[in-house]
Fold these 3 entries.
Entry 1:
Amino acid sequence: MSTTPVVAPVDGRAVSLQDVPDPVFSQAMVGHGAAIDPARGVIDAVAPVSGKVLKLLPHAYLVMTPDNVGVLVHLGLDTVGLDGQGFIAHVSQGDDVTAGQVVITYDVLWVEARGLNPIVPVVVMDEREPGNIVLSDAVTAGANIVSGARLFTANK
């Protein structure tokens, strides 16, 4: 069994995935994890784990660990329709990154000004067993978390 610590990609208030107002995430259709209501402003979103950037979109990225644990970070809800506005990538698809390395700069206020929810779901792709995700105390308490702090641990 592998144990993968997953760090918060942004500062903000840690929230349970079921509290994300989008059924794709709240019903764990893509996998289990947690979310962060991000700090307001222009913020850096970092890699939640070390590994290879398997997919990089302006508003989302997927990092695959050497143990084949894929962690998706989605910056805001319905942000795909922004055509990349409000986001600046600092890495390329296929790059190796370390946990805590800046991946995308995210203009939270710009996204909010367009009427979109800026929440940041962080999920282990295709994880069907909620028991394999051990949430941090910040998530269970709905407390503030800093970028780079443990958000949850994924056990496979």
Note: The radius of gyration is 14 Å.
Entry 2:
Amino acid sequence: MPRVKTSVRIAKRIMDLAAGTMGLVATAPLMGAIAAAIKLTSPGPILYRQRRAGMIPGYDGGVYSDFDVYKFRTMVPDAEVRTGAVLAREGDPRVTRIGAFLRRTRLDELPQLFNVLRGEMSLVGPRPERPELIRNLALAIPFFEERMRAVKPGITGLAQVSLSYSGRMLEDSSLARLKETLINPFALEGVEDSEADDMRTKMIYDFAYAASLESFREFLRTEVSILAKTPLVMFWSKTGT
């Protein structure tokens, strides 16, 4: 687990407050347009609130600090009434037409700038998962819950600028040569394209990001790199390490 330097924590919070405030001011007109588009094209609320698991505090145990994350609604109302909590996937039939665009560009995450200002999230960090899904993921993926030990969840992250939307590794990624050991490592039958494989790949990048927080210089280099790549991923779908 990472030993986050005090200087890194302070610098990261200052960056979150400054960039979060500027981001809200700069994107206010865009968020207004998105809200109008959602209202005009699909019945239901504009914003979607969902419980997510946050940072695990301390180094001697502790539990996730759950919080409510805010997103622009991208699915039909009551999308999980029959299925319960499930991970979204590519080509998900529950996603609206405007929702597909918002997901592809990650613009549905913009309201989470409020979560950043409130201190529940950071601009950069592992993506927060739903508590009810983490239980199953932790059973399938050893140490999965440790990816957020002393690290706040983020709007964007190293995994998000390095992998596909679902977490699928790219053929030219630095992990591609290790694909056989990461995807279905126990050679089980009938589990091709499983969600656990994608989440396992994301976890590796989350751990790599957490490790960067142990050095101020490495933190600054990694943070700036992720923030610079995020617009490319949003608008041109260019991912890669």
Note: The helical segments are 6-41, 97-105, 112-117, 131-140, 179-182, 195-212, 216-236.
Entry 3:
Amino acid sequence: MNDRNLLRGLLLIAIALGFGIPAIGYGLGTLDNAGPGFFAFAVSCLLLLIGVIMVIRSRLVERVPVDFKPRNIGIIVGSLALFALVSLYVNMIAAIVVTVFCAGLAATPYSVWRNAKIAVVLVAIAFVFTKYLHVNLPLY
């Protein structure tokens, strides 16, 4: 199985099932009164749908070989660990910005401008989650 598109789709399906199935046990509630597992289940369903679409699409397009880069995997895992540390000891806005710029090191052409735009959008999403969905995030 040396098909990058198929592998991506199967990985997304595995992640969706890994988080979606346990979320059912938390209680989904209703659309009016969402339970603790509703958000995780909804996101898992979307990931599952995207994964299935990617698997189907992998059968319709030309195969792309898997290019395994351990350096990039290490950068992404390190960025996630850095996110946890910075959000714990500073705040989440700083953690989002630091994580985006560190994870951007895994991209082939490093772009400060692209990373700045991504960081601004993610911070805006965090504010929307805090203000409108009442998610308790330590933004500042």
Note: Helices lie at 4-25, 38-60, 70-89, 92-103, 112-132.
